[in-house]
Design brief:
Blueprint (H helix, E strand, L loop, with lengths): L1 E4 L4 H7 L4 E7 L3 H18 L7 H5 L7 E7 L7 H31 L1 H6 L5 H29 L9 H25 L3 H18 L11 H9 L1 H15 L3 H26 L5
Parallel strand pairs: 2-3
Antiparallel strand pairs: 1-2
Length: about 280
């Protein structure tokens, strides 16, 4: 999140009193996470060498700073909060709608009695799961289109990276959340329980993913829980593509946790599918 660049002749210029410059590069995609640290940089220079300037001269009057600190805000030079919030809304909206729609749809079929007819057919559980998920994948991309149009037209959020890569990553995220909704539908007995399970998953995702609070400012246990949630990794992916122009190789560390979450959710859903009427 921060990178300190020290010129090769920094020490020599410092000894000569030439007041060299020290460059601090900041990942400013999340202004709330870096704002306090950047404000503290103004007090860094006079305090850094306070104990290294002895003598009566240093004690009687303030001594000019021995070096300059130049801060470079990367990816968000103006510190606009909408560059951080709007991409995060893509993940939070898709999380709530995809999980809720799938959980309610499957539970509604059980309440209406159509699930018994479906279970009586020779259709495999994996085929039922794919058939139920695909329509909501299309709905997820329609929601994505609306959000992206609002982001680009109304909020002027930049698009630095690859748009096809963004669509691919969003597809993985949508399927992961649909797998969670399918799992909830095998647990809930009615639509009210499905709604409660949806919010039980959505609220921790929103609070512990880094969307509302800086991720590194949260307690350690909260960071461990947040690393399990797919929204945490998706926020890093979408901000990296939109604001930084990250490539696929740079996103792999965030993609594989979402794939692992998808496999676990799909496995649990398929295992419980045949037991939904017991």
């Amino acid at each position: 999140q921060f990178m300190v660049v020290i010129p090769p002749d920094f020490s020599k210029k410092l000894v000569r009193g030439e007041r060299p410059s020290l460059l601090i590069t900041v990942d400013a995609t999340d202004p709330s996470a870096t704002g306090n640290a950047m404000a503290a940089l103004s007090a860094l220079v006079p305090q850094a060498l306070a104990h290294d300037l002895p003598g009566p001269l240093a004690q009687r009057r303030p001594v000019p700073a021995a070096f300059d600190v130049r801060v470079h805000r990367r990816y968000n030079p103006e510190g606009l909060s909408r560059y951080n919030i709007v991409p995060g809304l893509i993940g939070t909206i898709l999380t709530m709608t995809m999980v809720m729609l799938t959980a309610l749809a499957m539970t509604r079929e059980r309440e209406r009695g159509t699930m018994e007819n479906l279970l009586a057919t020779p259709v495999r559980p994996s085929e039922v799961m794919v058939g139920k998920i695909l329509p909501y994948v299309v709905m997820g991309y329609v929601q994505l289109l609306v959000i992206l149009v609002a982001a680009f037209v109304l909020f002027q959020v930049p698009m630095v990276g690859s748009f096809p890569l963004l669509l691919t990553m969003i597809g993985v995220f949508i399927v992961a959340n649909l797998g969670v909704g399918f799992t909830f539908s095998t647990v809930a007995r009615n639509q009210l329980q499905a709604m409660q399970l949806t919010f039980f998953f959505f609220l921790p995702s929103m609070l512990l993913s880094g969307f509302m609070f800086p991720f590194r400012a949260m307690p350690l246990w909260a960071q461990y829980v947040g690393e399990v949630l797919p929204l945490t990794h998706f926020l890093r992916i979408v901000r990296g593509i939109l604001l930084k122009g990250n490539h696929a190789s740079q996103l792999w560390t965030e993609v594989w946790p979402m794939l692992a979450f998808l496999l676990v959710a799909g496995f649990v859903a398929l295992r419980r599918y045949r037991q939904t009427l017991d």
